[in-house]
Design a protein that fits this description.
Radius of gyration: 14 Å
Number of strands: 6
Structural class: alpha+beta
Distance between the termini: 25 Å
Strand content: 15-25%
Number of domains: 1
Strand order of the largest sheet: 1-4-5
Helix content: 40-55%
Largest sheet: 3 strands, antiparallel
Length: about 120
């Protein structure tokens, strides 16, 4: 799977800075291994917490402020009820596109696989 960001998300802070809102649409293309291509438009006004990382010192130092475009896309895929396993696979591929290293990418993906079920069920 290959993820191509067609533009960068333009986000503005909402409230205390833990929530962000898209100020313009964010366009992404997802190329499946089988050849199917999906174009995703995350609409203006969509809210995200970007890459939510536990505030544990080690985790925060290793993973904070990485993969923001991937996180915006992933939050939207969860919000729109795309199949969770697929959304998480897209997240991992999007992290690779952003240049997130193998170690960080694996643990960020593992974090959404382990902790994402609660968030996914809340939508």
């Amino acid at each position: 799977m290959e993820v191509t960001f067609l533009n960068d998300p333009h986000v503005i802070t909402v409230g205390n800075g833990d929530v962000w809102r898209l100020a313009a649409p964010f366009e992404v293309e997802i190329q499946e291994d089988g050849g199917c291509t999906h174009r995703v438009t995350v609409p203006e006004g969509t809210e995200t917490d970007l890459a939510s990382v536990p505030r544990l010192p080690g985790a925060y130092l290793l993973f904070a402020n990485r993969g923001r475009r991937a996180a915006v896309l992933h939050d939207y895929l969860y919000e729109t009820r795309c199949p969770r396993r697929w959304a998480d696979a897209v997240f991992r591929s999007a992290l690779r596109t952003e240049g997130v290293g193998v170690f960080s990418r694996f643990f960020m993906w593992l974090g959404v696989r382990i902790g994402g079920g609660v968030v996914y069920a809340a939508y």
